């Protein structure tokens, strides 16, 4: 149950990072440093999400 909750939290954090990045793109333009930082966070969240899913299937907690 904890693993599924973590997966949902990380997924929503990734969506929030996506929305924030879109806001930076509209306000600052494509050469914004804040946009790049938002992309880095989103990549980190995606990697963490992938690791959690692989761990869940490997440990048998996700079927």
Automatic annotation (TrEMBL):
Keywords: Membrane, Transmembrane, Transmembrane helix. It comes from the Bacteria. The keyword Transmembrane helix applies. The chain crosses the membrane at residues 6-27, 39-58. The keyword Membrane applies. It holds the Pfam family DUF2909. This is DUF2909 domain-containing protein. It comes from Vreelandella janggokensis. The lineage of its organism: Bacteria, Pseudomonadati, Pseudomonadota, Gammaproteobacteria, Oceanospirillales.
């Amino acid at each position: 149950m904890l693993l599924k909750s973590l997966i949902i939290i990380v997924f929503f954090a990734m969506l929030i990072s996506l929305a924030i990045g879109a806001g930076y793109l509209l306000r600052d333009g494509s050469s914004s440093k804040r946009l790049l930082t938002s992309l880095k966070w989103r990549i980190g969240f995606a990697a963490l999400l992938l690791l959690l899913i692989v761990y869940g299937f490997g440990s048998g907690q996700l079927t």
